[in-house]
Amino acid sequence: MSVPGSASPLFLATAAAAAPAGPRQIDRSLRFDSGSSSYLSKTPSSAGNRKTWTWSGWVKRSELTTADANNYLFSVPDSGGHCSFYFSADKLRQNPYTAANGSFTTNAVFRDPSAWYHVVYAYDSTQSTATDRIKLYVNGVQQTFSAYSAPTQNQDSPFSSASAHYIGKHASSSTYSNFYLAEVHFVDGTALAATNFGQEDSNGAWQPKAFSGTYGTNGFHLDFSDNSSNAALGYDAAGSNDWTV
After folding, report:
1. The whole model's pTM is what?
2. How many CB atoms lie within 10 A of CB 122?
3. Distance between CA 188 and CA 51 in Å, rounded?
4. What is the sign of the dihedral through the CA atoms of 41, 68, 29 and 74?
5. Are the beta carbons of 242 and 44 closer than 8 angstroms?
6. Which of 2-11, 71-80, 132-141 bottoms out in mean pLDDT, i.e. has the lowest?
7. 120 and 197 in contact (C-beta within 8 Å)?
8. Which of 102, 76, 193 has its CA nearest to residue 154?
9. Which end of the chain is more exposed for a tag (fewer CB within 10 A), N or C?
């Protein structure tokens, strides 16, 4: 439902992630609507750990995409262009302007608009093995790539820099997204596995669990639980790294 008395294009909804026992119930999600040009943004006051970080979120797609209709989970300017993590042609991809930041395209396609996908992207350019520098998990399963270019070892990522960061929008154009998003974590300084944020229930289904770690300098937790105002939708539940609606 929309925020009462608000013209905000971001809408609250219930994330269907209940479990019979043990795993955590997610009560809120946020709807991103390209027709309303909705997105979240934040510019950190200083850079965090640009070599090692983790992004985690639960995503429910509201449109399937061609190669030219992209849905941006996380995007930031990159040396005159952009570095983006997004859905395109129903696959998950990263597209950097600077090749040293690495790129990938999943083998798997994600075409079920009724499903909640738990997506975890762990970046660690300090790893000596190139294939260990980017790891992507969906519903607890590490993904394989149809195309992969590893980041240069010890390469600083644009993410966690002091540049503007966007959720639901292309970093350098007026291209917006269509999906529901819930329980977003960004952990600055640690590359984590999906098991830090989720677990299988007694039926073998992947379910959320509470994250118990620390977030680092630019880390944040967006649970969208405060709908007292438009601005409150971007509050950081883990600290003070709030986002602008």
Report:
1. 0.90
2. 23
3. 9
4. negative
5. no
6. 2-11
7. yes
8. 102
9. N
* Strand segments (E) across 62-192: 71-78, 81-88, 91-95, 103-106, 116-124, 134-138, 141-142, 145-149, 165-167, 179-188
Structure tokens at 153: 């070892």
- DSSP-derived secondary structure letter, 144: P
pLDDT tens readout for residues 168-181:
999 988 899 999 99
Q: Which of 181, 208, 169, 244 is nearest to 11 (CA)?
A: 181
CA angle centred on 141, ends 202 and 84, rounded to 5°: 135
Residue 228 is classified by DSSP as S
How far is Cα 150 from Cα 135, in angstroms, rounded to an integer?
A: 10
Greater model confidence, 37 or 7? 37
